[in-house]
Specification:
Radius of gyration: 20 Å
Shape: globular
Strand content: under 5%
Number of helices: 10
Structural class: mainly alpha
Largest sheet: none
């Protein structure tokens, strides 16, 4: 199966966007997951944190993209400030596409992080405190290494989710070939042209293959990290 240069370009853009999105998802989902693990079962506060963590999932992605456009677009106060002061334009850019996809994927990273932090043995943390470690040092030396497999799995899951994100990306970053046109957006563009079904099918196969590879890698790395920690 031969792929055209524009199809390969869309694959490259997808990988860039997904890489950015996975970092955004970790930055958002990691702390939320920690709060979720510590607030689970604690009344209304825990429910509110749970709701905040899942809001990007229950909200249509196009709404996420619209919210970003209104807050970070070049005509918004914050977007105009970033443009004028630092020359940074997030809307209609690869970075903007990554941010949009990352926000949508963040709940998946948050859930994985929450489960990972919750699974850390509280006795080990108490032992670290008894040994004289401060809460911050105990977190970095004990909690974080033990939760690492879940965090890695969450990042790769977010990567896979970002590969398939459409609504938030096209709303905030548009469908610019070579800049923001990811594989899902390229599939959409192909279906708008007469006879584009074959091209769309090729791109769909690529999309499924990349997402599958990311999930398999997530499971493999998690298993290896867990085995290393258990050794």
């Amino acid at each position: 199966m031969m792929f055209s240069p524009d199809e390969l370009t869309a694959v490259g853009v997808s990988l860039q966007v997904a890489a950015i999105a996975s970092l955004i998802a970790l930055a958002i989902g990691g702390p939320i997951g920690l709060v979720l693990a510590r607030s689970r079962g604690r009344g209304a506060g825990g429910v509110l944190v749970e709701l905040a963590a899942h809001l990007p999932v229950i909200t249509p992605p196009i709404v996420v993209g619209l919210a970003l456009l209104l807050t970070l677009g070049v005509e918004s106060p914050l977007g105009a400030f970033l443009d004028e002061r630092f020359g940074v334009r997030l809307a209609f850019s690869t970075l903007g596409a990554g941010i949009a996809a990352g926000i949508v994927a963040a709940p998946f990273a948050a859930r994985s992080a929450g489960l990972a932090f919750q699974a850390v043995d509280a006795g080990l943390i108490e032992a670290a405190h008894a040994a004289g470690l401060s809460p911050v040092r105990a977190f970095w030396r004990v909690t974080l290494p033990l939760a690492a497999p879940g965090l890695v799995a969450g990042v790769l899951t977010a990567f896979a989710v970002a590969l398939g994100e459409f609504g938030a990306v096209i709303t905030f970053a548009a469908n610019i070939p070579g800049e923001t046109q990811t594989v899902p957006l390229a599939i959409f563009a192909a279906l708008q042209a007469p006879g584009g079904e074959v091209k769309a099918l090729r791109l769909a196969c690529i999309s499924v293959a990349m997402a599958t590879a990311a999930i398999i890698l997530a499971a493999t790395l998690r298993a290896r990290l867990e085995a290393r920690l258990a050794a």
